[in-house]
Amino acid sequence: MKQNVLMTYAILGGLERSVERTAAVLASLIGVPAPHFSRARRELEAEGWLEHTHSEGQVKFYRLGEKATGREVVVALRSRPTAS
Q1: Which residues contact 38 (CB under 8 A, 6 or more apart)?
Q2: d(CA 84, CA 9)
Q3: Computed from CA positions of residues 42, 48, 50, 55, in that sequence, does the dihedral angle turn out positive or negative?
Q4: Cβ–Cβ under 8 Å, residues 44 and 6
Q5: 7, 31, 38, 65: which could form a disulfide with 51 (CB 3.0–4.6 Å)?
């Protein structure tokens, strides 16, 4: 199950993009009940295979995590204006 979930994210999002589809839609693509899909996705996130990118309301979106891509995710720091 986890392999199917991971492959779904790899195919739909690639190495960089977030997959902006609900768990119900993704579960129907691979033919499993949505609660089983969601449980596997939570486990994959906890293990570092998937990464939560953002939420719209109560719907969470994910992309492949560092463990899946082999890449370290680096987020640029915001620069603060300095007082002169």
Answers
A1: 23, 27
A2: 47
A3: positive
A4: yes
A5: 65
Residue whose token pair is 């109560």? 58
Burial call 38-63: b when 16+ CB within 10 Å, e when fewer: bebbeebeeeebbbeeeeeeeebbbb
Q: Which residues lie across from 63 on neighbouring strands? A: 51
pLDDT tens figures, 10-19: 999 988 899 9
And the tokens for 83?
């007082």
Residue 24, both tokens: 């119900």
Which pair of tokens denotes residue 3?
A: 């392999």
CB 53 within 8 A of CB 15: no
Round to whole Å and give the CA distance between 47 and 65: 9
pLDDT, position 82: 57
Residue 6: predicted pLDDT: 93
